[in-house]
Sequence to fold (70 residues):
Amino acid sequence: MSDFTKPLGYRLITGPDDAEFCARVSGLLDQGYQLHGSPALTFDGDRVIAAQALVLPHSAVPEAPVGSAR
Fold:
């Protein structure tokens, strides 16, 4: 089981393209996440499945160049 107590910098939400999927993405947008790229859609034979990447902008921490002190 994943521990989601600390917000992740990147999330990929997947599921049937329905109101629940849209509510999940909308909820993350309300928490400060931003859409990252276009959604992806596929058909599993019964229904349309959607995927949307989201990023949390303030979670990005620049890496120090190799060999430099922090």
About this structure: The first strand starts at residue 10 and ends at 16.
